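Bug #77: duplicate submission created two jobs. Keeping one. Sequence:
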Amino acid sequence: MTIGATARGVLGLSMAVALVASTVACSKDSVGPAAPGGGGTGSVGVDLPRADSDFWNAYASYVPGKAGEVGVELIGPTNSQNDVQKLISNVDSLVTQGAKAIVIAPQDTGAIGPKLDELAQKKIPVVSVDTRPDSGEVYMVVRADNRAYGTKACEFLGEKLAGKGKVIEFQGALSSINGRDRSEAFKQCMTAKFPGITVFEEPTEWDGSKAQAALETRLSTDPDIKGVYMQAGGVFLDPTLQVLKQRRLLVPPDDPRHIFIVSNDGIPQELEAIRKGEIDATVSQPADAYAQYGLYWAKQAMAGAVPGEGPTDHGSTVIKLPNGYEDQLPAPLVTRDNVDDPALWGNKK
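Kept job's structure:
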């Protein structure tokens, strides 16, 4: 079949576009070519997951400023108060108000799936911050490697306890991928590397009062507890320190009665507790970067950009998920050795 001049022109243009697209897709930003329609404009609806956590309150404080830096207009934020039904209602409200992209942090990562698929059908992209939905289409998940949190906590406590003793673990909600990732990795690491350590797993649903009650009970039945793993310092730090103070166990690390504590979050209060010798370590998940890149990817989604896999220019790696992509941000272990590092977000406030 002979190709006419017009057809040849179209074919040539298509090949040129494909070449440019291929080049952009390999950029260090891990952002592929823009899809037709969309120019990065529109408002972003943001829902905050809760107001009873110092970590999430810090994240909320970063959102307005990061929106200005990224160059997006906000609708909200609303607050779903750790209630998935309220989250669904809030998302509907944000869409009604004109949101062209949504940034959320679902605490129940199983129940949000149908709403995500509904939004996808409406061509409203969703960025999930900190948590990875179990199902349902997402444009991007912005989080750190939560399995690494559990492994780092295990290795730290295992070494401090020389592989022997008893540890209590405040598990996050197992309805959340974060709670499952941290719990599973902590258990696998302890079983493989430190079989001489007994771990008491205490479900908390991310509730500080449940952690406090569990610690009080466990110290009564097992007064020789020598380690604590708090999966969320933002909700567990104060209750834990209160119990230890009441029992006169809040002592320096060189005191034989000291209970070694490793946490997750990296809030300023944890860093100060490390300086005081009240706790020993935390894994710093970046509240500032969660806000920044949650909004950044929302803007990319509105522009129709297709994410590319691989390293980014902000020190992370984008991976492909069955239901979208994930931007895996770095989350360092913080101890007395590096607690004053000015790069830690907890030292910037």
